[in-house]
Amino acid sequence: GENVEQHPSTLSVQEGDSAVIKCTYSDSASNYFPWYKQELGKRPQLIIDIRSNVGEKKDQRIAVTLNKTAKHFSLHITETQPEDSAVYFCAATHPGQNFVFGPGTRLSVLP
Amino acid sequence: EAQVTQNPRYLITVTGKKLTVTCSQNMNHEYMSWYRQDPGLGLRQIYYSMNVEVTDKGDVPEGYKVSRKEKRNFPLILESPSPNQTSLYFCASSFSDTREQFFGPGTRLTVL
Question: Is A102 a residue whose pLDDT tops 90?
Answer without folding.
Answer: yes
